[in-house]
Amino acid sequence: LVTAKFMVFVDAATGRPIAREQLLKFASASILLRVPERAPTFGDRFDAPALLADVTVDGVSQETDELGLVTWAGPGPALIELSLRGDRARVLNDVGPEALLSIPLSDATPYLWDESQNELLDAQLTAYWHASFVREYARTFAPVLSFLNQQVRATVNIDDICNAYSDGTTINFFQSGNGCANTARLADVIYHEYGHSLHAHAIIEGVGAFNGALSEGISDYLAATITGDPATARGFFNDDEELRHIDPPNFEHTWPDDIVGEVHYDGLIIAGTLWDLRENLIASLGEAEGVQRANVLFYQGIRRAVDMPTMYAEILAADDDDGDVTNGTPNVCEINDAFARHGLRPSSSMAEGLGVVPPTQDGFDVSVELVGLYPECPGDVIVGGTISWRDREDPSTTGQVELDVSGNVLSGTIPTQPENTVVRYRVRVQLDGRTVSLPDNEADPEYEFFVGTVTPIYCTDFETDPIEEGWTHGLESGEMTAGADDWMWGEANGNAANGDPPKAFSGARVFGNDLAIEDNFNGLYQPDKVNYAKTPVLDLLGHARVHVQYRRWLNVEDGFFDQATILANDVVVWRNHNSNDGAGSNTHHRDKEWRFHDVDVTNQISPEGTMQITFKIASDGGLEFGGWTLDDFCVVGLDAPVPCEGDACGEGGGGE
């Protein structure tokens, strides 16, 4: 192959070369693609190089360069054939042959390939450029991810409408129709679908997991961080309106209040969080460095996260620079602010778990330790706190106690209370700029404990199989599908997605809904089902006053939709909060810690002196949570059993 042939000019006296002229003549010209920046109906079009595309020049194969440049021996025009296939991307047309440019190309004369008036061809050009672009953009924050070495395969003009999808690797786009644009002509949608593929390949096997709502949210964020616009998929409906807005004015999508069970909407929670983090980092680091840092943290988070709530810990760890997140990270304040706005900063508390306590002369000590605070951040310095308490049965008996502060521990003493009293109390911790209320459960916002001495009638800590002790469980109504009756005994296996406990209150085992210990279970109760767990029939003979006392970790939708109930001899004695606000009922019962719960069942003792306790979940067709998890269950008498005499033995219920 001859690449150079020169005429050399030499000095007549010395014979030394003084100049040379290339005798071989070359020609070159660029091929450009006329594509929309965002959408045909929003933003401008621009001339993008047909970069790294396969091309034949007078029958000889080559590849365009980064500027879409083609070269040939020249000097005359060359016949070129260019396809939308190259190192970075390949476009496949679902309704016919792939687009092919076949033209004579003249030296130094760029050619503009413009198919803006032809939907099916324009979709191919647009997909080629933006698919190539998003792959290279991802390299800026994930330079060693091997997936980014693969050619992006984009199938366009699929005979369907109003959607697009990723299969985990390839990206796929539908034609226009029913008011929707051809999705391959929308840059944001191309970026979004590539985000799903990026997510699938970024996950560290055995550590992270693919979660639908998380993936929708991070894909919306990827599109937004590229365009710099939180209003994503503008032009989807053939106008300038967005399909979704990840940072709507005067509103923040928050966990778990804005969970509705539709992954695109639910994903707005993490999308908005990441966008706010990006804005915070721009404010502190500047535009270029702030965007880059936000993108790196977003990517490192999705590698190990299993759902939206776990993104907080993973991003904090990714930002850490010394192996100890407890002493802060370079951008901890910006991270905390963004995640707190969207309800994804975990509750920072460890409350002392009072349960059944004997009467004392000195009162009842309560302490709360706030963990995960960073005093260097605004809003994380403890100023003070109070305990507000009340007698559960006597609303007039109330009080408030100031808490002493020692480091990040607050403590105080509730005054002595009479025998057989249930005390309910709430802790409020004042930080500089915000107040933390404990327990963090709007549907049941008070802890409780029982004052008195009780007589155990039946107790189990679930360290042995409750079925062997006579417990039963089953499906009361709904279709009998796998996991419909999901009551299980075993180790707690909860996570942030279902809100269940990560470990038992005591010992190693618990009893509850869907402990997610086998295939086909996900930690959530199923829709449109009523299932239950029942104790054995208990003999209460001789006891006049009986309570159920146990530890619970319950997560259930607002009682307007899903009902968690406790029944004593088939009479409801407790149910979860019902906001009774129609579609706006969103005060879900979300325990975030083991809670002591006392239920008076005295009035439900049968004439025969027996009782059976039932825990039940009744769900509608929508949102599901983790359901019941039980530990340290007891049925107790508030008095010693009354000995029976004569004919009364075996006939009734335990005296006056």
Biggest pleated sheet = 6 strands, mixed
Tally the beta strands: 41
* Class derived from helix and strand content: alpha+beta
Helix proportion: 10-25%
Beta-strand share of residues:
25-35%
Tell the overall outline: elongated
Cα end-to-end separation = 111 Å
Q: What is the arithmetic mean of pLDDT?
A: 91
Backbone CA Rg: 34 Å
Low-pLDDT stretches are 648-656
How many helix segments? 8
Describe the structure.
- With 656 residues, the protein is α+β, with helices and mostly antiparallel strands.
- Helices cover 17% and strands 33% of the residues.
- The protein contains eight helices and 41 strands.
- The strands form eleven sheets. Strands 18, 20, 21, 24, 25 and 26 form a six-stranded mixed β-sheet that branches. Strands 27, 29, 30, 33, 38 and 41 form a six-stranded antiparallel β-sheet that branches.
- A hairpin with an 8-residue loop joins strand 3 and strand 4.
- Helix 3 packs parallel to helix 5, helix 6 packs across helix 7 and helix 7 packs antiparallel against helix 8.
- The N and C termini lie far apart (111 Å).
- 42% of the residues are buried.
- The C terminus is likely disordered.
Helix and strand topology:
Blueprint: E1 6-10, E2 17-22, E3 27-36, E4 45-49, E5 53-57, E6 60-63, E7 69-72, E8 78-86, E9 89-93, E10 100-105, E11 111-114, H1 119-139, E12 152-161, E13 164-166, E14 171-175, H2 187-202, H3 212-227, E15 231-232, E16 244-245, H4 263-266, H5 268-285, H6 287-304, H7 311-319, H8 332-341, E17 350-351, E18 356-357, E19 364-369, E20 382-391, E21 398-402, E22 404-406, E23 409-414, E24 421-431, E25 434-438, E26 447-451, E27 455-460, E28 472-477, E29 487-491, E30 509-513, E31 530-534, E32 538-539, E33 546-552, E34 555-556, E35 563-568, E36 571-575, E37 589-590, E38 595-600, E39 610-611, E40 613-618, E41 629-637
Parallel strand pairs: 3-11, 9-12, 12-14, 18-26
Antiparallel strand pairs: 1-2, 3-4, 3-7, 5-6, 5-8, 8-10, 13-14, 15-16, 17-19, 19-23, 20-21, 20-24, 22-23, 24-25, 24-26, 27-41, 28-31, 29-30, 30-41, 31-40, 32-39, 33-38, 33-41, 34-37, 35-36, 35-40
Helix pairs in contact: 1-2, 2-3, 3-5, 5-6, 5-8, 6-7, 7-8
